Amino acid sequence: MERGQIISTRVILRVIACVVLCAIALALLWTLRKPIGWLLMAGFIAVALSGPMNALHRRGMPRGLAIAAVYIVLLLIPAGVVAIVVPPIVTQATQLAEDAPRYADDTEKFIHNNKQLRELNDKYDLSTELQKQAKKLPEKIGDAASVLGSIGLGLVNSIFALVNILILSVFLLASGRTWIDRLIDFRPADERERLRRIADRVGDAVGGYVQGAMLVALIAGMQTYVVLAILGVPFRGPLAVMAGLASLVPLVGATIAAFLIAAVTLFTNFPVATVIWVVWAIVYQQLENNILQPQIQKRTIQVNPLIVLIAVLFGSTLLGIVGALVAIPAAASIQIIVREYFEFRRDTYGRVAHEDLPGDDEDDVDPPTAAPDEETDAPADRRTFWSRFRPASG
Question: What's the maximum distance between 2 C-alpha atoms anywhere in the chain?
Fold first, then answer.
């Protein structure tokens, strides 16, 4: 009884210790969630840039110079986006504030020329209120400065996080492969080749997906700019950049951008520009989904559409837009690992079963066959069985 009580106490203490350690681990993960997220993003960037870096290194460029080159290109992309988007937005916003009174006068004339609108204006005095708000609009620009100041503080924090992520990714890109090889060397010899193949396939899948997605975004932005230039839509530069960036978000990004651009075309030669843009957006979506993306992404792993949807939903819930961007390469990496694991299990159990099969060794001897009974001409095992029921002779 005393021994049973001792064993039960030990089991209870072990359970309590496991629960406490799990709680401490979860609390630690929650506390370090921000740097862990930075580390995951840095790893994703390092894997994505490993392809171009290795290509430059194979062509004779030193490894350090190749890393510097790919990071310079990476930094030039957001700088170019800011240079394209910010100046037109500032210029057009200032022009809109200055032209607001004129737009109010034009709207008032349009209201007076329409009978139904004139009746609504007489009832609710819409034109007077519109004039008041139009005169206040230039004054609102000063108030917007304080809003931009708070936004700027958030941008400073984001820039700090981005710098840390880039520095981490540089270290991972420079020596990450060495760390992976050292970790693989701890595994048995028969597993090392498979683990290296998994690492190579994951790197190829992530790098290929990122390169393909960037090419699709470039094509989406260029075709948007050309179509909007033909239609004479203003803000076509920022709108093209928005369409290209939105196409990086799987499933819904391009559709949301198309709706926003359609809303802008409502103020430019309505309804002709809007109808043409909507028709072109639908046609281009079909071309991109059925021809462009399959051709660009054909060298990367194919992920089931249901898994893509689930991955995007989970990623966007956990990490927002960033999670949606990395959802598909993360799902592709998990799919590679799972497939390699099941192949490893199948090969291992198949080899063990083959080794346990009888008759493979030369020393195996067929069991002797029993001689038939002389009297009954029956096998010896049957004769022995029935002899138990016969009386003993003598």
Answer: 136
105-116 CB burial, b ≥16 within 10 A, e <16: eebbeebeeeee
CA distance 239 to 245: 10
321 φ, ψ (degrees, to nearest 5): -60, -40
Q: Strand, helix or coil at 269?
A: coil
**Pick from 217-226, 241-250, 265-274, 362-371: least confident:** 362-371
Q: What is the pLDDT of residues 58-86, one digit of tens each?
A: 888 888 898 899 889 888 887 887 777 77
Report the number of secondary-structure helices (H) and strands (E) in the chain: 13, 0
Give residue 180's identity as a one-letter amino acid code: I
Q: What angle do CA 368, 371, 377 make, to 5 degrees?
A: 150
Three-state SS at 342: helix
- CA dist., res. 264 & res. 268, Å (int): 7
Q: Exposed e or buried b for every residue in 362-374, given b needs 16+ CB within 10 A?
A: eeeeeeeeeeeee
Helices 33-58 and 189-231 meet at what angle, rounded to 10?
A: 90
Rounded to an integer, what distance in angstroms lies between the CA atom of residue 192 and that of residue 178? Answer: 14
Going by C-alpha positions, the residue among 250, 248, 349, 368 that lies closest to residue 305 is 250
CA-nearest of 204, 215, 240, 210 to 225 is 240
Q: Which contiguous run of DSSP H or E holds residue 247? A: none
Query: Could you report the per-residue pLDDT of 313-346, keeping only the tens digit for each?
Result: 888 787 777 777 778 888 888 888 888 888 878 8
CB-side neighbour CA atoms (13 Å) of 154: 6
Q: Tell me how far apart the terminal alpha carbons of the chain are, to the nearest angstrom.
A: 61
Each as own residue / partner, the long-range contacts of residues 275-281 (CB below 8 Å, 24 or more positions apart, any chain) are 276/227, 276/231, 277/227, 277/228, 277/231, 277/233, 280/227
Whole-model pTM? 0.63
CA distance 235 to 356: 73
DSSP 288: I
